[in-house]
Amino acid sequence: xxxxxxxxxxxxxxxxxxxxxxxxxxxxxxxxxxxxxxxxxxxxxxxxxxxxxxxxxxxxxxxxxxxxxxxxxxxxxxxxxxxxxxxxxxxxxxxxxxxxxxxxxxxxxxxxxxxxxxxxxxxxxxxxxxxxxxxxxxxxxxxxxxxxxxxxxxxxxxxxxxxxxxxxxxxxxxxxxxxxxxxxxxxxxxxxxxxxxxxxxxxxxxxxxxxxxxxxxxxxxxxxxxxxxxxxxxxxxxxxxxxxxxxxxxxxxxxxxxxxxxxxxxxxxxxxxxxxxxxxxxxxxxx
Length: 287
Description:
The chain is of the alpha+beta class. The protein has helices spanning about 15-25, 60-70, 85-90, 95-100, 130-145, 150-165, 225-235, and strands at about 1-5, 30-35, 50-55, 75-80, 110-115, 120-125, 125-130, 170-175, 180, 185, 190, 195, 200, 215-220, 245-250, 250-255, 260, 265-270, 275-285. The protein has 7 helices and 19 strands.
């Protein structure tokens, strides 16, 4: 295949661009171009390629996916990040050589892409939410090195989530799910397109990125200890279930937020309404 490689130099630890490029060429592919800046991703539509390869973590994969959504150019993933939630949700695992070898089967699936309306339109692949995950992202940004060892980074991030749930204060949010309101004071509100967020934290098993629906998961003060116990289990590498309430919807509105995240980016909401929808089957992925 003729490939465009979207490369994140801050992901992958000791893995270099030269190593990844050599693996692609050794597998018989033609590397037509390498893109390192998200702003340059739209330019790939002017290049004769068969696939865009995103080599990095969830942030890298999400940026590539957002750029390709709505097109017929498939996305291939080489997971080099901390948690690799998107790759895991699609069953992509193992070594880089194994991931590249799997492309021989040319199995392309189409997955949903979420869309939010707030100061313009933004796509997302993972999730949108407020509360715990925002606190975890903010804490991790300050202390976790971008090019650090992925295993160590996951461990540290899970530790930060455990610390965050202990001090987090609930905030009132009016959530509307396909016209039904579930307003309350929440420690966590997550609108999920894939099962896991952050450092491999699975908040709901009721998530399918290819069914045209989003899963909404919440936690109030009543679920604080339950959620803390789940996060501690994940910190210790133990199997566990968050056991949180969840709903399925295609149109969600969030009102009353101070801040929220879109995938790995935190934004200020200033209390304005955040409207969330979904574009079914809009991204082609090699899986």
